[in-house]
Design brief:
This protein has 771 residues and is of the alpha/beta class. 16% of the residues lie in helices and 23% in strands. The strands form 9 sheets. It has a 20-stranded parallel β-sheet, with no helix packed on it. A 7-stranded parallel β-sheet has the order 6-8-10-12-14-16-18, with no helix packed on it.
């Protein structure tokens, strides 16, 4: 590899394997070298230290290992050094102090350890330091605020730093981002932080910081009212043990996240909290707060998440809370709230997560609650609620978790629950429910956990529950059930604990119940048959056989689609800072493409997983709707030819979908680029893949889905040239009965991308395609 004739050389994102080419790294003109986003193996070549005029060296997410060679710190012209997302070990060489022009250094997401050389904190030109996600330890120099006068962004989170830092850092007047979360820092949080007039983000979470003085009020919060640009304030997980001052109402109008969870805070929630008119996330959970929820909370008109759980708040839920029409999560669990659940919660149509468990609510559930048809998780457990469960519970079509346990509900289990095909967890335990287990439960095809213990249920356990392939936890103990315990499907893995204290149950010895008397059951059936006329019996038998055949054929045709549609892998959510690291700060070198609502970047997680991050441009109002639509669609559908979702990333001003990376790009590239060529078999395979995806969207899922924007740029190809339909930003769910006329107006009328007719022409004869 010769770099002698270039000033700028980029080999990023080419999937190079093996060691970095050594060759002649002795250019006298090379200023920028980018090798990020590859799969190099081995260490940084020592020869790179010969690039004496290099100003920018980018090798993030390049698969590098070993030690960071001290020789590269002899390149005194370096201004920016990007080494994040590799597997470097050992210490940062002390020679880093030679880089007296260095402005940016990113070493996040490696396995570096030990103390950071004090010489690094003497480079007065430094503007950004990122050391997140390593194993650094020791103190940060107490003079950091004086020695780094140009520091703007400091990221030290996820290490083992100790000592004090905040007093000194308050002197770095240009600081906009301070993230020292998840370390072992100590000392008081000083009021001098208010001197950081440019501060946008302050993250001190999960350390051992304490309040500045013995005063009950958290005075540092008052000082932060001087930070007029502050947007993120996250101080949770520190032993502050104070009370909230009324001055929190004077914090900047730009504050969007206010988080003080697990800080030992006591006293009342100040009514002035209602002045935080721009806050989107308000988190005061796991403290010792008392008193009532202030009615001024209605002033938080933009609030999306409210977390007051695990406190000692009492009183009733104020109806003013129903004015928060943008709220998606309401979490008031584990408090001392009482009275009735406000019926006006139905006004908050954006609610997705509603947690009111472990309180003292009584009477029944308001009938309006069942109109919140977009609820995903609904928890009212451990209250004193009573009455029958209504059939309207079946209107929560998208719910994945319902917990109504440990109340006083009576009556039968509503059969309409069987229509909740996305339900993963259902608990009705510790109530006074009667009747039998509904046969309709066999339709809960996504169910993983079912707890109906500690009730007065009777009758048999339906054998049809053997079809619930994903059921892992089942508890029907302490009821009055009878008959044989099923043994097929998920029941193969259940133990006797699932059936304890049901004296009339029988079955296999491993269930520790009496064996079933098969002969007695057979004789009883024969005796009953003797009372039926033989011709009538033969007719009924023939009809039964016919119905069984039809049902069997129907299930054979339908089940593969159902099984495929519910196959899902639970993924942890990907944090924003992980996504930033994975994409090298959403670098243009990682850009895969742009669209109407945002851009798509290639990224690599720390475990080596490749991903595609679809980042929405929230400057467009429709981008929010597009993000919500795509999440809604992709959450419900599963098919081998539909784009695979790994996770999502969503915060105050950021929305992204994390998708499976497709190394062969889009079909548009293969159709219109001179560098790529599709043979006739590949074209045919791609057309079949797209047709299968459309057939599933239109006929294979319980609710018809119309893509509305199918074109070559929205068809992606994996390493084996398998096609995947992507981009559901303007897709539509069509309930049964929606008119054909409507479906024909959803897509772009009269438009087809050049070459699309050739690629997909056989599909245009299909009414599904036209829809």
């Amino acid at each position: 590899m010769s770099a002698q004739n270039f000033r700028f050389l980029s080999l990023s994102f080419n999937n190079f394997n093996g060691p970095i080419p050594r060759g002649t790294w002795n250019s006298t003109v090379l200023e920028v070298l980018s090798l990020s986003g590859n799969n190099f193996k081995g260490e940084i070549p020592q020869e790179m230290s010969n690039l004496l005029h290099l100003e920018i060296l980018a090798m993030s997410d390049a698969g590098l290992t070993g030690l960071i060679p001290s020789s590269i710190f002899n390149i005194t012209s370096l201004q920016e050094l990007y080494l994040s997302g590799n597997s470097f070990t050992g210490l940062i060489p002390k020679e880093i102090g030679n880089l007296h022009k260095l402005e940016i250094i990113l070493l996040s997401s490696n396995s570096l350890r030990g103390r950071v050389p004090a010489t690094m904190f003497n480079i007065s030109t430094l503007q950004e330091i990122a050391l997140v996600g390593n194993h650094f330890s020791g103190n940060v120099p107490s003079s950091i605020g004086q020695t780094l006068p140009n520091l703007e962004r400091l990221y030290l989170g996820g290490n083992n730093f100790t000592g004090t830092i905040l007093d000194s850092i308050s002197n770095a007047s240009k600081l906009t981002i301070l993230d020292v979360s998840d370390n072992r820092f100590t000392g008081p949080i000083p009021s001098s932080l208010g001197n950081l007039g440019r501060l946008l983000i302050l993250n001190l979470a999960v350390n051992n910081f304490i309040a500045e003085s013995s005063s009950l009020e958290l005075s540092f919060l008052t000082s932060l009212t001087n930070c007029t640009y502050l947007r993120i304030l996250h101080i949770g997980g520190n032993p502050l043990h104070g009370i909230l001052p009324i001055s929190i109402g004077d914090l900047s109008d730009s504050v969007e996240l206010f988080s003080l969870e697990s800080c030992g805070i006591k006293g009342n929630i100040p009514s002035e909290i209602g002045n935080l008119s721009s806050v989107l996330l308000l988190i005061l959970s796991a403290n010792n707060l008392t008193g009532r929820i202030p009615t001024t909370i209605k002033g938080l008109s933009k609030l999306q998440r409210l977390q007051f759980h695990d406190n000692r708040i009492d009183g009733t839920i104020p109806e003013e809370l129903c004015h928060l029409l943008n709220m998606g999560e309401l979490r008031l669990s584990e408090n001392r709230l009482f009275g009735t659940i406000p019926a006006c919660l139905v006004n908050i149509t954006s609610l997705r997560y509603l947690y009111l468990d472990s309180n003292r609510f009584n009477s029944g559930i308001p009938t309006t609650i069942w109109k919140l048809k977009d609820l995903l998780r609904f928890n009212l457990s451990s209250n004193s609620l009573s009455g029958n469960l209504p059939q309207e519970i079946g209107s929560l079509k998208v719910a994945i978790e319902i917990d109504l346990s440990m109340n006083k509900f009576t009556g039968d289990i509503p059969t309409t629950i069987g229509g909740l095909k996305d339900l993963i967890s259902l608990s009705l335990a510790h109530n006074r429910l009667q009747g039998s287990i509904p046969e309709a439960f066999e339709n809960l095809v996504s169910l993983e956990s079912l707890d109906i213990s500690q009730n007065n249920l009777s009758g048999p356990i339906p054998k049809s529950l053997e079809s619930l392939l994903y059921l892992k936890h089942f508890n029907a103990s302490f009821n009055r059930l009878r008959g044989e315990i099923p043994t097929g499907g998920p029941f193969v893995n259940f133990t006797s604990q699932s059936f304890t204290s049901n004296e009339a149950l029988c079955g296999a010895p491993r269930f520790q119940v009496r064996p079933c008397d098969k002969n007695s059951l057979h004789k009883s059936k024969v005796n009953r048959m003797l009372y039926i006329l033989l011709p009538i019996a033969l007719i009924l038998l023939a009809l039964a056989i016919l119905l069984m055949c039809l049902k069997s054929r129907w299930r054979r045709n339908k089940n593969p689609i159902q099984l495929e549609s519910i196959a899902a892998v639970t993924r942890e959510r990907i944090a924003y800072h992980e996504l930033v690291r994975a994409t090298d700060g959403f670098s243009e070198s990682n850009l895969l493409g742009t669209g109407s609502y945002g851009s798509v970047y290639k990224g690599t997680l720390t475990d080596g997983t490749l991903l595609a991050a679809k980042v929405f441009n929230l400057q467009q109002e429709t981008a929010f709707k597009s993000f919500d639509t795509e999440c809604e669609i992709l959450r419900n559908i599963r098919h081998r030819n539909l784009t695979k979702v790994i996770s999502s990333c969503s915060n105050l001003d950021f929305r992204a979908l994390i998708l499976e990376y497709m190394p062969n790009g889009s079909l548009e590239k293969w159709l219109y680029s001179h560098n790529y060529l599709l043979d006739i078999l590949q074209r045919l395979d791609i057309m079949i893949d797209v047709a299968c995806a459309l057939d599933y969207l239109h006929h294979g899922y319980s609710t018809r889905v119309v893509h509305c924007d199918l074109k070559p740029s929205n068809v992606l190809l994996d390493e084996e040239m398998v096609a995947y339909v992507s981009d559901f930003g303007i897709a539509k769910f069509l309930e049964q009965g929606d008119s054909i006329a409507l479906t024909k107006t959803l897509a772009t009328i009269g438009y087809i991308a050049p070459g699309e007719a050739f690629s997909f022409q056989f599909l245009f004869n299909s009414t599904d395609w036209k829809d």
